[in-house]
Design goal:
Elements lengths: L5 E11 L10 E12 L4 E5 L6 H8 L7 E6 L2 E2 L5 H10 E4 L3 H4 L6 H11 L5 H14 L16 H13 L5 E5 L7 H18 L2 E5 L3 H7 L2 E6 L2 E7 H6 L4 H11 L32 H5 L5 E3 L2 E3 L11
Parallel strand pairs: 3-8, 3-9, 6-7, 7-8
Antiparallel strand pairs: 1-2, 1-4, 4-5, 9-10, 10-12, 11-12
Bound molecules: adenosine-5'-triphosphate (ATP) and magnesium ion (MG).
């Protein structure tokens, strides 16, 4: 196995409920023992319902937040021990694209300055070099180089997200973390942005952590898929294999609802809460296969036919 670019080992992130009085202990178990590794050049898709912990994981992976416990390593080094120089190096090698390009792009900066920002942060000052890099990044995301003089408000939503992607790739990072990069876009623009991400990945070998509600989009872009349910990964494996034959009952529910126009099936059963996760298997109150054991015993992620599944009732070899 090649060295991981990014590796989460038993990562926990709990949040105190901000609406509670101090001293009243109620915590959101946003992440509850997550293991995940991304190899260099690999594209990992992270899926799961709203509130299952995807953005929490992304923020930890970007060093915007720190875990309650567990270990996060980048290129083999524990990020908890990073000094200022290691953080600066990390900021160059890992970039982010968020859901809403309007709020993630400064309205008072021209695209030139916005896109050049990661290079400036590395100390690149030569105007000719910055101009050339910005022009190259604009071209790479399918925008005309003369757009560099424009401001974000002069662009469409899809163009703004292209600018956010240009900024993310301009310093040639090893990993781009994309938290719902297509969710705020018109349906007609989503496929274009997905194609662009696929092209950039193929051309540059950049690794992605790609978070999206659109399961089919994730399946098309990712090499591997990790499925989260209430702070835990319940299934993880090759994207083609998982989408062709999901094993965990929750993954099946997700794919079944994605196949329906409006995604209605995913809203079946009680909405899950990170404040009061069910005992045993957290999915058991909504699971068609649930039995008594599921309420008592936490299913561990086990190797099943080349992927990992956390379900008492998916035996080795099942469905493969
Ligand atoms: N700063 C915070 N303070 C308190 N609770 C938080 C905080 N951030 C996240 N949470 C809680 O942690 C859980 C996971 O939230 P998170 O934003 O990671 O979910 P998500 O999977 O990204 O959801 P969505 O699909 O809606 O973006 C939720 O219950 C949320 O309320
Ligand atoms: Mg989120």
């Amino acid at each position: 196995m090649s060295a991981a670019l990014l590796e989460f080992t038993d990562v926990v992130r709990h949040f105190a409920d901000p609406s509670m009085m101090p001293g009243r202990r109620r915590v959101a178990r946003a992440l509850d023992g997550v293991g995940l590794r991304i190899a260099p050049g690999e594209s990992v898709g992270l899926v799961g319902e709203s509130g299952c912990g995807k953005s929490t994981l992304a923020r930890l992976a970007l060093l915007l937040d720190a875990p309650t416990s567990g270990r996060i390593a980048f290129a083999g080094r524990d990020v908890g021990g990073f000094d200022a120089a290691a953080r600066a190096e990390f900021r160059r090698r890992v970039q982010a694209v968020f859901q809403d390009p309007t709020s993630s792009l400064s309205p008072r900066m021209r695209l030139q300055e916005i896109i050049a920002e990661p290079l400036r942060a590395q100390g690149v000052r030569a105007a000719a070099r910055l101009d050339a890099a910005v022009a190259e990044a604009l071209t790479a995301v399918g925008l005309a180089t003369d757009m560099a003089r424009r401001y974000p408000h002069e662009l469409s939503g899809g163009q703004r997200q292209r600018v956010a992607i240009a900024r993310a790739i301009v310093a040639r990072p090893d990993l781009v973390i994309l938290d719902e990069p297509i969710s705020s876009l018109d349906v007609s623009v989503r496929a274009q942005i997905l194609n662009l991400l696929a092209e950039l990945k193929a051309a540059r070998g950049t690794a992605y952590l790609f978070i999206a509600h659109d399961l089919l989009a994730v399946a098309s872009l990712a090499d591997r898929i990790a499925v989260m349910y209430l702070g835990r990964i319940v299934e993880e494996g090759d994207a083609q294999a998982v989408s062709a034959a999901p094993l965990h009952p929750y993954t099946r529910l997700l794919f079944a609802s994605a196949a329906m126009e409006d995604g209605a099936a995913a809203s079946e059963g009680e909405p899950p809460s990170a404040y009061a996760p069910p005992s045993g298997c957290r999915f058991h109150p909504r699971c068609p296969l649930a039995q008594a054991r599921c309420a008592n015993e936490v299913p561990l992620l086990r190797e099943v036919g080349g992927r990992r599944v956390a379900c008492h009732f998916v035996p080795a070899g099942h469905g493969l």
